[in-house]
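Continued from yesterday's entry.
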Amino acid sequence: MIVRTNKARITLRHKTEAQLILLPDTWDQLISQIHSKFKLDNSNVVLRTELGALVNDIDLIRDGDVLCVQSRGPDSFKENSWITLNVGGHILQTTWHTLTKERTSMLARMFDKGSNWKNKTDDNGAFLIDRSPKYFLPLLDFLRHGELVIDGGVNPYGVLLEARYFGFNDLIPKIEEHITTSKLRCTLEPLTRDDVIKSLIRTPSNYILRFRGLDFSGADLSDLDLKHINFTQCILTETDFSRADVYGATFDKANMTSCVLDVGISLDSADIM
């Protein structure tokens, strides 16, 4: 006995395959069938008409329609692929190569080829990231050019939390240094030996500590390891550098009036202009 149905019949096309199916009742059921029929379990699916119009609602589909299935799974990413992100409602565009530069980060794992990370997309196919765009942008710019840039009005602590969340291990020390330097700049009194020691302890040995433009007048910095520190444009009047090691330190345009530089100090490779 043949049972007739009034359900619409549609054709789904994916690459070289085609499937004729009965239109289900809901959008989720349709996407589930597409995943099953074309074996796209780890991919995000976008439907378009033969003319390229986006289809994102079951009510837009009619009997006899031919829909093209586009999958955006990890295997579809190429090094020159442009990727659209929806970060907290803010649309950003970048490349696969940029997103995967920080190889140990969450972003690299999300978009890595062969990853099982199930990225969600919005109705336009942009990958959804539920984070604040204000704090996410400095991370994206760091991936683009390798430098930390935090615009005025953006709390660097928010950027630090974002870097920790996404696992930007190379960027975290730079943000911490930026925060420390920013706090020191807000100090009305000249900085002390204790301030310098705290900064030295917090800064990894493979990073350059920058004190650019700060006031160290009268500070006792004797016997400290100050190698490669940037003292550019600092106020160093009457600062005591006795027996301090300033190998590779930079003193460009610093005010060094009456600072103490005794015979024990190593200035051979310091940059003094």
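--- second protein ---
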Amino acid sequence: ADQISRFKDLDSCSFEGSSTSDSITYCYQSNELYGVNPKAPMGGSAAATEGLSRALCVEKKNYAFPSQFYTNDDLQSSVSVFGTSAGQKEYSYTEDATISTADVSIDRYYDQNDTIAAFRSSAQAASGFISNGPGFFQLPQNDFSGACNDLNYVGFEVNVRNPQSCDRYVDASTATSFQSQCQRDQSVDRYVTDLYLARNAELQASSGVSSASDVIGVEIQRVLYYDSSTDTTSDVTTSYVANNCETTYYGDVRTSTGFVRTGQTCLFTSNSSWTSIDTSTANATSSVMFCANIVRDVVYYVNHSTTARGTIQQVLADVTITDLTATTASYPVVFAQSFAIEFTSANTAQQTTENGNL
């Protein structure tokens, strides 16, 4: 009775008896709608648009039939779940699904943006090819400070055609450190001639591979030499390949002219100060660390199959080399590098960057 009286006081109940309608509709007045939005159809609308304004009407229904109101508002005592002990439930889940490891295999197909396993040759290891270090094909790019970030990995079919140059810091605090970075870390071997990629996505560098058919070696397509003394670039591909040149460290170099260089067919500088190099410490007139043919720029060209497996078929590289000198110092030597990559396939369909259906 108290609940019914409360509803009646709130004008929430329909009148009993033979009412023509069992609902009451309340709508906002035009002046109220105008306060919300003065523009039609809300702030006073024509008959054609009046339907939208009626969306703000509220209809209340309350039938005058017995048992319409709850007689017992203590609902919890009648619900069985509140009478069960803690931890019990009136339902159960199905058994957990299990997947046999025999049904799981590494994805063998290259998909766009997949990382590519990378290897280097090793005569000492049980397998012929071991991880290149991080285990993935690297494409150094500049980080927030402008330094070269070696942990940037190539994504399959992700082209990087116009890279920004990055700053390579070479430790010159000791001759041993400078030599290691010259002949190993920033050498042509590391980035090209001793770099092998997994032909298919199923290979993992962490386990190594023994078969040469599982990997594809990066081949030199072109070698350019950048002469910092003249700020010029020349094509030295023929001489570099014919003489099996590589990145070479010289601990002491003769800086004076007049000493005839013998057997140094892999030095391409035109600077007269470096045309005479003596590997004998006794003949050196100064102790300057010299790194010949250090990597400056690399552009990779990866050709892959058009089949679903996307097998990598060939990898070529255009390499730009230069020379780097340093004296023993507590601060590093800095020079610029850049790395780019382009993926191609036998697919003759024209690629486009336009959006939409073509």
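The helical segments are 2-9, 30-36, 50-53, 175-185, 188-193, 237-242. The longest strand covers residues 289-304. Will compare against the first tomorrow.
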